[in-house]
Design goal:
This protein is mainly alpha-helical. The protein has one domain (10-245). 78% of the residues lie in helices and 0% in strands. The protein is built from eleven helices and no strands. The chain has helices at residues 10-30, 34-45, 52-68, 75-98, 101-119, 129-145, 150-156, 162-186, 192-200, 202-216, 221-245. α1 (10-30) packs antiparallel against α2 and α2 packs parallel to α11. The mean pLDDT is 83.
Length: 246
């Protein structure tokens, strides 16, 4: 169930909407990046908004992609990844309650760097069901505890068409964000203030989608892979910094 809201400065929340818009523009172009871009700003300005506020955005934003490109979803990869995310989400929620996201953020950051390292070696990650299962398992913990789960499945999809990457990630985010929000609510770690901020940022999400439209035209298959690797690296730095900042 939702806990009592923390006191949040409305001006700060609205200002954070600009970071959310920028993250939405990036995600609109490459398929993920909302939390990667926005999370550090939210953590620095009002950490009590994490992770629920961005999980709300992580549910709303991908709906736009799904409404237009449902046919591009790789349902085989989606089923494997989401099944494992669903199974491991309670672990992520438990870690938020017992350990807090700080320790998890550090582990997640190191894991993302390892995945990027493997990707640029001859042992390149491919879109297979076993890889999707592994990505889903990690995301069940990382996506719930640190609100950053996209990089893991994005690495699995990095060699696919941009349309397939964006659509499959969108479906995964809608399902995964819903699961994580429910798990956090049951654990008593989701506040009314977090949900309210997430809903307040919906217009900023729309702005980000509009800003991201011209970027989509510039993203070829190779550029998509480069963007995925770049933002996965950024994601790792972000979560490690979050761990250090506490």
């Amino acid at each position: 169930m939702l806990t009592d809201p923390a006191s949040h400065d409305v001006v700060v929340v609205l200002a954070l909407g600009l970071a959310v818009a920028l993250g939405a523009a990036v995600q609109s172009a490459v398929g993920f990046g909302l939390a990667v871009v926005a999370a550090p700003f939210v953590v620095l300005a009002d950490p009590a908004l994490m992770p629920g506020s961005l999980l709300v955005c992580g549910f709303v934003l991908p709906l736009w992609e799904l409404m237009r490109h449902q046919r591009d979803v790789d349902r085989r990869i989606l089923a494997g990844a989401y099944g494992m995310r669903l199974a491991l989400t309670p672990v992520g929620a438990a870690l938020v309650v017992w350990s807090g996201p700080r320790e998890i953020a550090l582990v997640v950051g190191v894991m993302i760097l390892l995945v990027v390292g493997v990707s640029i070696t001859p042992l390149s990650v491919r879109a297979t069901v076993p890889n999707a299962l592994a990505a889903g398992a990690v995301t069940g913990v990382a996506g719930t505890a640190a609100s950053i789960g996209g990089p893991f499945l994005a690495m699995v999809l990095q060699h696919e068409r941009p349309e397939r990457v964006r659509s499959t990630l969108a479906a995964f985010f809608v399902l995964g964000s819903t699961t994580s929000l429910v798990a956090l609510a049951v654990a008593g770690e989701l506040t009314v203030g977090q949900v309210g901020a997430g809903l307040l940022w919906v217009p900023f999400l729309a702005l980000g989608v509009w800003l991201g439209r011209p970027l989509r035209l510039l993203v070829s298959r190779e550029r998509m892979r480069q963007a995925v690797l770049t933002f996965c690296t950024i994601a790792s730095v972000v979560v490690i910094l979050r761990a250090g900042l506490g």
